[in-house]
């Protein structure tokens, strides 16, 4: 019996537009994680809904159509059966809005854009400076102490810290910076406090010579006589171990240390534009995610400004 080859379905004009947009994102250096999130939201959710509705062209996406799509998202349920949050709905709608902005710049006809439902800004947990000091104190070796301290004093992301090499410490006179490869492969220089710099110098000098790469942080145990670079999972486990040892019950994730550092910098009066440059985060992101600073912080900042910083 001869096998019958079924023809490959021809993608709709809307599906081709999504493919072109995602290809443009990759060409611009969008991070793999963001590319995966946008791809899922657009292909696995938005296009599937459009197929079910018989929508194949961009021109068919008017305001009423988007209202139906938003209503569809608001009715979705989590695996536990609970309604998905407004923040989750935003995570599905924002890639669609960004796609439409790109399409308009490419000369396509964009009739409407989905409205974003209202959502309350989350109140995020932060670690105090004392809690960060406590996390460092409980760690049994200098490598793990330095991991906590770099997160707490330099505000790096998990993948940024994992990719650090010994020669990423850049010196200029009495100042030193960490040369960090951040999102979209953008390089930035993050200041290193003098005390931390001295500790890093001693740590680098004492590292084992038998290593498979020049990563800053290596495994404590050698495999085949060679120490390998510490992975992101290894760094995450180090942070988790620190929380456990210190008895801190706040949610465990390395980004909490970055978030706490950015909060502390703003509370101490750092200009948000300077913070944006050092942290590798846009001013819009800083304005959106750091609304948890209290009115007491605003009062203290205003008093410092009016008194000339005294």
CA-atom Rg in angstroms: 24 Å
What is the terminal separation in angstroms? 90 Å
Mean pLDDT: 87
Q: Could you give the count of β-strands? A: 3
Order of helices and strands: HHHHHHHEEEHHHHHH
- Fraction of residues in helices? 40-55%
Q: Which sequence of strands runs across the widest sheet?
A: 1-2-3
Shape assignment: elongated
In this structure, how is the largest beta sheet organized?
3 strands, antiparallel
Poorly predicted runs:
none
**Which range does the strand content fall in?**
5-15%
Helix/strand class: mainly alpha
Kindly summarize this structure in a few lines.
Helix content is 53%, strand content 5%. The protein contains 13 helices and 3 strands. The protein has helices at 13-27, 32-53, 63-74, 86-105, 129-137, 142-154, 158-162, 194-206, 232-246, 254-267, 272-279, 283-289, 295-306; strands at residues 169-172, 175-181, 187-191.
